[in-house]
Amino acid sequence: MPFFAKTVSGCFVRIGIGNHNSKPVYRVAEITGVVETTKVYQLGTTRTNKGLQLRHGSDQRVFRLEFVSNQEFTESEFMKWKEAMFSAGMQLPTLDEINKKEVTIKEAMNYKFNDQDIEEIVKEKERFRKAPSNYAMKKTQLLKDKAMAEEAGEQERAKAIQDQLNELEERAEALDRQRTKNISAISYINQRNREWNIVESEKALVAESQSMKQQQMDPFTRRQCKPTMVSNSRDPAVQAAIIAQLNAKYGSTGNPDPTKDIATTQTKDKDGNTKSTSDLSEDLFKVHDFDVKIDLQVPSSESKSLAISSKAPPAKDGAPRRSLNLEDYKKRRGLI
Questions:
Q1: Which residues contact 36 (CB under 8 A, 6 or more apart)?
Q2: Mean pLDDT by 10 residues, the chain (336 residues)
Q3: What is the pLDDT of residue 194?
């Protein structure tokens, strides 16, 4: 903060100075200034090297911000500070000074940051950040600054930037080793699990094969087979392949190319036109389109009756008459 040093100077804090009989000991001290320490330490979620120049009576010392207490002064701590001030012959702060400091604190709380203040804050955070949020971006920025320093002839600044680059590379390599260490451990666990799964599957296959050997044949169980599926029989190429397989399996039937006989087989319709079987097989009505001869060669009934009449007994009255055959029926009806 650009106003931090000015605002806190003249304020009082409760600072921890150590332990006594396993109990923390605190003192009231006045802030006389803000300095930078040689040690960078963690303060909450940020890192800083700021320290407070504190005065307790005639004693002055620099303390890090992490030792400042958030609690209010106790009565005994206030009396201790008052005695130290009187012993050092120093004057206590007046009411007017306290009112002015209160106004300064309120102004700091209502301070409006500008672009320059924001840039200073970002640079301060980047300065004490342990690891950059983006290594690639940080490396690019350092390389750019190094190139600019070399062009300007600032060799010392270029050397300092090179040291930062080396430190950044070492930090990135350390993080990469840590990351690959975890990955290698996980890979080892996965490989071990895969090997265990293979061993267990082999054991299961051996046990299954042994159980199948011990089982008796079941005549009602469907056996595994590889049937030959005959499809697309109208395709000459498929039909020729099927016949070739059958000939190779059962022997030749004496017809080297039966597909030609099937293709050349022809039929005649009732009009005398020739039709190939391939055309007939495509239409079911054409398959059944032929004449059926129902005229049977039956001997004449007169000659049969004459030959049997001499031996047959006389017909009785009321006996059934001789039934007509198909040919006599057609003659009577005028169909022939």
A1: 49, 50, 51
A2: 80 88 88 85 81 87 87 89 88 88 87 82 75 74 86 86 84 77 78 92 89 76 71 69 82 52 46 49 67 67 47 51 75 79
A3: 92
Q: Return d(Cα 199, Cα 74) in angstroms, integer.
A: 73
Residue entry with tokens 């407070």: 52
What pLDDT was estimated at residue 181? 73
Rounded CA-CA distance 242/238 in Å is: 6
The C-alpha atoms of residue 323 and residue 123 are separated, in whole angstroms, by: 130
